[in-house]
Design a protein that fits this description.
230 residues, alpha/beta, Rossmann fold, 10 strands
Length: 230
């Protein structure tokens, strides 16, 4: 297993009365290397919280996350930052591209953060944009791109350091049907080409069903779903 979550608990306190809300309740989860796995669930069920904990953007109140057997709870914030940059690619509902940077520069940024030279980072970014048919958009700024193009640039940025795992949180949430389909096809093709493990959170059941495994996050725990062949 590439990622394992063991007995994850995450609690929030809401409102003036600080009402306790247990979002994740002794949750266990294993992600097999090279697989595509999707997670569905009602709004507010904790899908994004779980993704952030698995990607080390947040820490659980209890329990631990293992990456290839390494207990990430023992890592310092600095060590986690280095770990994320090297091993995890993130794609969010909102592309979070830096508006003052071109597509090429946005994609190159994580590579630069990983202590690579500016020249090497731009070359790697250019190669990746070419593979995603975005060469003619490399000098465009985010506001000059369509929604679908912005998300494809965001995917390129997520892939620049050749991460072993890509975590996608509602990546099609702001796209129309055509661009949603194109993005999903892109993510699936990347899984096949590079054996990249993909964990996808989505409200779209039809997208979710395309994955190798589908889970429903309900009452703080994951429940595996089975779909009959149509």
């Amino acid at each position: 297993m590439i990622i394992q979550a063991e007995k994850i608990i995450k609690i929030y306190f809401e409102g003036i009365e600080k009402k306790q809300l247990t979002v994740l309740d002794n949750l266990d989860f294993s992600l097999e290397e090279g697989k595509i796995v999707s997670i569905i669930g009602l709004s507010g069920s904790g899908k994004s919280t779980l993704l952030h904990i698995l990607g080390t953007l947040d820490r659980p109140d209890s329990g631990k996350v293992l990456f290839k057997g390494r207990d990430l709870s023992t890592y310092s914030e600095h060590e986690l930052s280095h770990f994320r940059n090297k091993n995890i690619g993130f794609v969010f509902q909102f592309h979070h591209l830096l508006p003052e940077l071109t597509s090429l520069e946005n994609v190159a940024m994580p590579h630069l953060i990983g202590n690579n030279s500016y020249k090497e980072s731009l070359e790697a970014a250019e190669s990746l944009l070419e593979s995603l048919n975005l060469t003619d958009r490399k000098y465009h700024y985010p506001h000059q791109l369509s929604g679908g193009e912005q998300q494809r640039v965001a995917v390129a940025r997520a892939l620049i350091n050749n991460p072993e795992v890509v975590l996608a949180d509602e990546p099609t949430g702001n796209l129309d049907t055509k661009h949603s389909q194109e993005l999903i096809e892109l993510l699936w093709s990347l899984n096949k080409r590079f054996h990249t493990t993909l964990l996808l959170v989505t409200h779209n059941i039809e997208i979710a069903k395309k994955a190798d495994e589908v889970y429903n996050l309900r009452d703080g725990t994951l429940h595996k779903l089975m779909f009959s062949e149509e």
